[in-house]
Specification:
With 101 residues, this protein is an all-alpha fold. The protein folds into 2 domains: 47 residues, no CATH class; 32 residues, no CATH class. Helices cover 58% and strands 0% of the residues. It is built from 5 helices and no strands. The longest helix is centred in the middle third of the chain and has 18 residues. The relative contact order is 0.06.
């Protein structure tokens, strides 16, 4: 991420370089957890035959990950719930369901 060409390309695309700690590119636990889930997801093959094959699998995986996969670290909410501020309403419904029992 130090090469001038890469830095210029990132600036052109509006991408801001950042690291949690200097010179540590793998210090993002959220990205790491997503990659781990992707890597060990039962429906994914051991390898991809082509870039197109990987893209097609990603089109299935990422909507599931963001909208269907309930994360323990997010109190069993989905990233979609957190991003679109739906978590509090879901917490309220959970509490009401538990109180009704």
């Amino acid at each position: 991420m130090r090469s001038k060409t890469l830095a210029q390309t990132m600036a052109t695309l509006g991408v801001v370089k950042s690291h949690s700690r200097p010179h540590v590119s793998d210090d993002n636990p959220f990205s790491g957890e997503q990659f781990k889930t992707l890597k060990y997801h039962l429906d994914l093959p051991d390898y991809f035959d082509s870039l197109r094959h990987a893209e097609m699998r990603g089109q299935d995986f990422f909507p599931w990950y963001n909208e269907g996969h309930h994360h323990v670290g997010l109190a069993l909410m989905t990233p979609h719930d957190i991003h679109y501020a739906l978590a509090q309403e879901k917490r309220n419904r959970r509490a009401a369901a538990l109180a009704a029992k």
